[in-house]
Design brief:
32% of the residues lie in helices and 14% in strands. The chain is built from four helices and two strands.
Length: 77
């Protein structure tokens, strides 16, 4: 744990270069965490864009009230 807090950049660099596949961080001799490159993270953890797809429908006229909304918030468009 001490090594991780004082020089985390070294293991991260090794992961980015592909020199190491993962790093186990231990506290008092017991494994506490595993550091892996983002490319090795589960796909569900990486997926963000389109996460709400299919949960709602955007109406075709969504922009019709833009000028009124701008006035309410004090903006001049």
């Amino acid at each position: 744990m001490l090594d991780a807090t004082t020089s985390l950049s070294k293991p991260v660099d090794a992961l980015e270069r592909g020199v190491q596949r993962d790093f186990i961080i231990a506290r008092n001799g017991r494994p506490a965490a595993r550091l892996v490159p983002l490319s090795a993270a589960p796909a569900s953890a990486q997926r963000r864009i389109g996460a709400a797809k299919g949960h709602f429908v955007v109406p075709d006229n969504i922009d019709t009230l833009n000028d009124e909304v701008a006035q309410v918030f004090g903006s001049s468009r």
